[in-house]
Design brief:
Length: 226
């Protein structure tokens, strides 16, 4: 299944696009403003992102730039009612792969999505792969390897590692990890996060020279190269 994130604040437009894409067997998640779009992007893995330029909280150009910084390979299609050459150039400079002017016919949107995904497939055969240093995660079959060696992970360890890999070089607090991995938005008063980070470290870095998961004392954990 192809996963698409749609960031669009006009409910009518997003409902129209979502309905059409679902009919064509795509999985679609909708975010209604730029910040919600960025949050969804950081928490999930998408094959393609459709984003509107005029968005509340964080505009589409800025959102596009931030997504590109984190993930150079994801396909981005920008939608806009702004049709000057400058608008289009700004969108493409921000990292969009294509730019579609509103209003559009659904079939044109579909054709452009298919073209972008085709292009990805030829240039990026493993688009379900997250890579950090010599660590590789396949998000489709949930497997991990380091320097070519398979690493057997439990379901929770996998989710924890995926969270780190989706947020490289970002400090993740214990509260954030607890919420994302266990769905708990309160402090359980246990050291569950620390225990699991240690399990993960034992598997991912014990037999390797380079440490990747670092403790930031009093704050949390960060995946980074030393
Ligand atoms: Ca809009």
């Amino acid at each position: 299944m192809i996963n698409i994130l749609l960031v669009e604040d006009e409910d009518k437009v997003s409902a129209f696009i979502q309905k059409g894409l679902i009919e064509h067997q795509y999985a679609v998640e909708v975010a209604r403003d730029g910040v919600a779009g960025l949050t969804s992007f950081l928490q999930n893995t998408y094959d393609l992102i459709i984003l509107d330029v005029m968005l509340p909280l964080l505009n589409g150009i800025e959102l596009c730039r931030q997504i590109r910084q984190q993930q150079p390979q994801v396909a981005i299609l920008m939608l806009s009612a702004l049709g000057t050459i400058d608008d289009k150039v700004n969108g493409l400079h921000a990292g969009a792969d294509d730019y579609l002017l509103k209003p559009f016919h659904f079939n044109e949107l579909l054709a452009r999505i298919e073209a972008l995904l085709r292009r990805r497939k030829t240039t990026e055969p493993l688009n379900h792969t997250l890579v950090f240093s010599d660590l590789k995660l396949n998000t489709a079959n949930k497997t991990a390897e380091r320097a070519g060696q398979n690493i057997a992970l439990t379901a929770k360890e996998y989710v924890l590692l995926e969270l780190f890999m989706q947020n490289p070089n970002r400090l993740l607090s214990r509260e954030y990890i607890l919420e994302k991995v266990w769905g708990l938005n309160f402090d359980t008063g246990t050291n569950m996060v620390d225990v699991y980070v240690n399990y993960l470290r034992n598997k991912v870095q014990k037999n390797f020279d380079k440490k990747l998961i670092h403790t930031v004392i009093g704050m949390g954990y960060i995946l980074k190269e030393q």
